[in-house]
């Protein structure tokens, strides 16, 4: 695995990592890796945003899998490290060019930041504001290769300096994208402010040399509890953490779904997408599904029938979107087997061959291993009233898939109080939109340093005016 | 060995079968041992197959009607999750009647007359089962928020410690030191009780850190609090009123497990100094005792032929490298009698002079591929997930898959024993499997602290 540092590809003197691959010694790269002189960002800052858009568009064009040797090589290596299967990985790679398309980049700039703040000072109410890029380390997740691409786009749009830590479960995608960029525009300021390398998370010898406010201002940390946790030890004033911490998602299905045979089938099909697309590796995938079938005998019978349909529909998902897990979690397998001891409370549909399973609870209680559901295993929990489901949510609940949309309107004012961060129509949980807030905040916006320039005229405003007893509550410019 | 060839005596009462010879138990030729084990396994399976509903279900699912070889039982080894497969709300809502019905699927014991309606605590339920049945449920530490219940029997524990007596003190009673609560129903507490009775003889020779009872309810609440805190849902834990009322009792208990260790080792030195003792505990607790002793300048406290049985292992970095030296210096012994034991299986599997844990003959050892669960070959030296069929289990099914990764050798040991052996130092836990849901007294102290802190917060 090569490292790409500021437009240079490093392959020499590889060391072996415990994750099972080789790459350049991260400590050896430390002298050239961080941007020690903050003024060195001025070259990128002065690139007009439209030029950034053009370059990203060109890069996107080069990321067509059929024409890109770097991506092809990465894709051939990736199945060895990823929990996703080769078919599904291929589909995610085909998604990459679209993330760099001008429409997508403009949408991100406009909706997440406001493009005019990127190109210059925007005056408003007596103050001018401009968005400056920051020097950031991105500890990205590897459960979906598009995260590498999204990180490159976000960094380019904010015109920051990015050091990407390649994850052990995807050490190849980010380097392939950056090598493509190096070939395309080796000397462009954008290229000079993007780096990617692998080091073992928690390698304190290396990390102490990297995480210092004099050279890094922000750390964007995705993913597992461990990765977020160990970054926190380096935090101090001047070094900010933007944590996209581990999340799980759920589903709430209203009684309408069980009113007719057609609705049963349709909702099972939609829910199957939320459970199974990308092999349930994403935090946005559905796991516990609260189904308002009722909890009386008829309700439980419906839940069982619908659970069986859901399993069927998951099994029917096309292999390019969803396959049985590469390695079905043995602990989960044991948990599923263990439920054989409690047939009064749980029934398991499927699961014997590691193809996925649906556990149907026979009371309004999810299984106690609900946080460990993976490999296309869902837990259908019958409830009487959809509002009950919301009470089981917490701040680790990222996405809630909802059916029908009218129920979303009922839930959306209370669910966030329990911790829910995203409501989405059933079947669309795996649609990721980089331009909207994520995990209850706006990571792209937070990657920016927002700088203000405030003007006063002594002729109209005395320097002590703000402390005068009769100072107006609003001292800015009134329009 | 008795002339009579009776596989069920071999399985259920090895002391009788082997005429009280521990050496004989471990020196049967391998083929003979496996034939005996297979015969016993077939009899157990035939007797339990239709009477333990969970076994019935699993056997039907796998299409297994008889055991032709030992490996045929592998798909029937229960995952540890079986013993905590009930919905968590049964404990929090005091539905012990339904919990009893859940338990009934795991044993042949008729529980239809055990009326658990209206009980208000896990302790009360365990009491009831103790009183009304031959079962002696062993509960897990519950550190993951759920609590397992293993349906062992009084006879199993008694017979095991008759045997331990053969190893430790065949001729005379001995003082038994148990550095924890006097009574309790966790896996290790069940061992301690049996050890006190079988080795100590009378209650005044059973020396405990604390005179009270280790409450399953406290352990359970602490585990729930920890799980809730990890989920950011601490505010949603309801504290049962009967636990809140017992705050003072917990305070006292916590004091005993913390500061009390110093007073305990002093008391041991004063009353048992120079005498022969036997003691069973976990590595960390023995280490804690030694530390408390060294703080008071106590060394060589007991007679040199005392027997200390440490079990449970240590998480990496949790204990100093040379913790064992400290324990030996404190106790005044020149070796420790390590055991490889777990809540789910009734055996101690002691360490031999060649540094290997010998699997007791009534346990059929299986090594499973950690990913697929398939049985690995019974030859050479193999690393895998340890699983056992405990043939001493007669009222429940003794097949169990552990969360332990072990390296085992099937061929005879230089020490002369022929039973398969697990190499000391190779025993580890698989990530996730069983989590930290292990019985340790470290968990006991922190369980008490956490419960108290929460109760204090909740009651203010």
TrEMBL record, chain B:
This is Acyl protein synthase/acyl-CoA reductase RfbN. It comes from Actinokineospora spheciospongiae.
């Amino acid at each position: 695995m090569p490292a790409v540092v500021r437009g240079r590809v490093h392959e020499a003197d590889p060391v072996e990592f415990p994750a099972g691959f080789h790459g350049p010694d991260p400590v050896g790269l430390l002298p050239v890796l961080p941007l020690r002189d903050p003024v060195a960002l001025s070259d990128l800052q002065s690139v007009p945003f439209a030029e950034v858009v053009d370059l990203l568009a060109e890069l996107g064009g080069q990321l067509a899998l059929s024409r890109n040797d770097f991506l092809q090589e990465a894709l051939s290596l990736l199945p060895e490290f990823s929990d996703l299967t080769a078919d599904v990985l291929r589909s995610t790679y085909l998604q990459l060019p679209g993330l760099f398309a001008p429409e997508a980049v403009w949408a991100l700039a406009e909706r997440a930041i406001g493009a005019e703040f990127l190109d210059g000072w925007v005056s408003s109410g007596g103050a001018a504001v401009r968005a400056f890029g920051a020097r950031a380390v991105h500890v990205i997740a590897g459960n979906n290769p598009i995260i590498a691409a999204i990180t490159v786009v976000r960094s380019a749009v904010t015109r920051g300096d990015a050091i990407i830590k390649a994850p052990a479960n995807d050490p190849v995608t980010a380097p392939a994208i950056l090598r493509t960029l190096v070939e395309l525009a080796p000397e462009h300021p954008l290229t000079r402010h993007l780096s990617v390398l692998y080091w073992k998370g928690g390698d304190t010898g290396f990390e102490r040399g990297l995480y210092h406010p004099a050279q890094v201002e922000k750390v964007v940390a995705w993913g597992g509890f461990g990765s977020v946790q160990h970054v926190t030890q380096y935090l101090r004033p001047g070094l900010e953490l933007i944590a996209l911490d581990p999340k799980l998602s759920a589903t709430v299905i209203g009684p309408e779904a069980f009113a007719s045979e057609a609705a049963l089938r349709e909702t099972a099909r939609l829910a199957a997408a939320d459970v199974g697309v990308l092999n349930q590796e994403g935090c946005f995938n559905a796991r516990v599904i609260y189904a308002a079938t009722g909890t009386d005998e008829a309700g439980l019978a419906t839940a069982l029938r619908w659970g069986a349909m859901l399993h069927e529909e998951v099994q029917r998902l096309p292999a390019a979107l969803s396959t049985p897990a590469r390695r079905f979690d043995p602990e989960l397998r044991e948990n599923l087997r263990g439920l054989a001891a409690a047939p009064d409370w749980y029934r398991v549909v499927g699961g014997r061959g590691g193809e996925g399973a649906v556990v149907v609870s026979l009371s309004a209680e999810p299984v106690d291993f609900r946080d460990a559901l993976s490999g296309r295993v869902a837990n259908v929990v019958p409830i009487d009233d959809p509002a009950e489901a919301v009470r089981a949510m917490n701040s680790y609940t990222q996405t809630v898939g909802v059916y029908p949309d009218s129920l979303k309107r009922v839930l959306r004012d209370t669910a966030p109080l329990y911790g829910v961060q995203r409501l989405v129509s059933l079947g669309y949980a795996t649609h990721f939109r980089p331009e909207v807030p994520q995990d209850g905040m706006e990571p792209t916006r937070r990657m920016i340093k927002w700088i203000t320039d405030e003007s006063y005229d002594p002729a109209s405003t005395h320097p002590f005016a703000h402390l005068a007893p009769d100072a107006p509550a609003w001292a800015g410019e009134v329009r | 060995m008795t002339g009579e060839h009776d596989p069920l005596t071999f399985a259920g009462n090895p002391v009788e079968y082997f005429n009280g010879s521990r050496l004989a138990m471990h020196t049967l030729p391998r083929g003979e041992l496996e034939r005996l084990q297979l015969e016993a396994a077939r009899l157990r399976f035939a007797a339990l197959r239709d009477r333990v509903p969970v076994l019935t279900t699993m056997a039907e699912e796998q299409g297994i009607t008889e055991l032709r070889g030992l490996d045929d039982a592998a798909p029937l080894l229960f995952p540890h999750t079986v013993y905590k497969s009930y919905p968590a709300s049964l404990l929090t809502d005091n539905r012990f009647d339904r919990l009893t019905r859940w338990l009934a699927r795991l044993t042949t014991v008729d529980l239809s007359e055990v009326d658990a309606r209206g009980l208000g605590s896990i302790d009360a339920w365990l009491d009831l089962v103790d009183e009304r049945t031959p079962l002696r449920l062993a509960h897990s530490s519950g550190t993951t928020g759920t609590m397992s219940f293993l349906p062992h029997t009084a006879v199993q524990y008694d017979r095991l410690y008759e045997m331990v007596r053969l190893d430790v003190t065949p001729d005379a009673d001995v003082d038994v030191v148990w550095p924890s609560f006097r009574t309790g129903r966790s896996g290790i507490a069940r061992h301690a009780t049996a050890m006190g009775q079988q080795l100590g003889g009378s209650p005044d020779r059973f020396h405990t850190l604390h005179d009270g009872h280790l409450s399953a309810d406290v352990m359970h609440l602490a585990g729930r609090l920890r799980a809730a805190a990890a989920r950011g849902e601490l505010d949603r834990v309801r504290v049962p009123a009967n636990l809140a009322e017992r705050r003072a009792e917990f305070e006292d208990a916590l004091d005993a497990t913390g500061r009390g260790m110093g007073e305990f080792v002093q008391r041991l030195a004063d009353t048992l100094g120079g005498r022969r003792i036997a003691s069973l505990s976990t590595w960390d607790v023995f280490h804690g005792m030694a530390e408390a002793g060294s703080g008071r300048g106590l060394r060589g406290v007991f007679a040199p032929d005392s027997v200390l049985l440490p079990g449970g292992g240590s998480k990496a970095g949790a204990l100093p490298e040379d913790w064992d030296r400290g324990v030996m210096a404190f106790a005044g012994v020149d070796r420790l009698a390590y055991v490889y034991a777990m809540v789910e299986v009734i055996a101690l599997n002691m360490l031999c002079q060649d540094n290997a844990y010998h699997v007791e003959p009534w346990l059929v050892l299986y090594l499973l591929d950690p990913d697929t669960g398939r049985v690995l070959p019974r030859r050479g030296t193999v690393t895998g997930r340890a699983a056992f069929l405990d043939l001493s289990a007669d009222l429940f099914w003794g097949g169990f898959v552990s969360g332990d990764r072990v390296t085992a050798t099937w061929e005879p040991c230089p020490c002369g024993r022929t039973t398969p052996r697990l190499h000391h130092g190779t025993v580890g836990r698989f990530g996730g499997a069983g989590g930290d849901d292990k019985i340790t007294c470290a968990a006991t102290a922190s369980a008490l602290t956490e419960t108290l802190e929460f109760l204090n917060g909740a009651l203010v």
